[in-house]
Amino acid sequence: MITTPPELRPETRARQRAELTAIVAREATRKPRNHAVPVLAAAAVVAVVAGLAIGIPALRQDGAPAPAAVPAHPGSQAIAPLNAADRNPLGALCAERVATVARTKSHQVLDGFRYTDPPSGAFSTTWVVIRIEGFWASCGFDAKGNLNAMLPASPRQPLLHAVELKGAGTGLYAAHIKRITVALPGQAPVQAVLRNGYFYTALPYVRVRGPRTDSAVRPYTVRGYDANGKLVYTSPRTDGEVRAGFDRCYVGPDGKIVGFGTAGAHPDPKTCLRSYIWRYQPN
Fold this sequence. Notes:
Helix content: 10-25%
Order of helices and strands: HHEEHEEEEEEEEEEEEEHEEEE
Largest sheet: 6 strands, antiparallel
């Protein structure tokens, strides 16, 4: 049974609409970027939504084996695919939320899975990925079926970093990343599930505690490894390190500027850091 969601907090709704509007507008124009754009638009954070629920007391499996981690590592969290009867209603809920900006509810459900034994307090335990109006959205649901997270992404979206955390242990990654771990303070790293260009973990939602100063420690530590097992990315540890990253400029694979912060109105591309391109990567 689908319940009517309560009104979101104004700041949550404004953030959600800003992120989706930027992606929809980019897909509508489909024009190449020939000038610098603000970093903020390229690094939109996950939109967390609350109150939308559908009863999914016992998600069925379609008999297919759960995808194995490649390679298997300690700390992996087991998952099982959803069959069409389970993932389609969840995809419709995801599309309903996205349609507040996308102007349509017409969508295609591309993927769906659940964690078979999520830890207590895990924020999102079931995920679906849909395509709607030319871009993708991955929506997360908690153990009670509440839609609580949405990760929109567009084709060839710039990634300022090889791995970008967008929520509670979830986010986007570049194609050369083959393994990702996420750790909370004082806990062993959890192996993320890498699917469709998104990475997922069943971890609690943790906020930065205390005043938001440059010394405030970020709650999630994210590490990315390449095909040879080499560590090629470690997430910023403090708010200050995050802000310092936004003050840099970034160029795409073609050498053109894709984003810059407060470092200067027209930075020299030769002084900028390399960015990456996100692609939907069907499993």
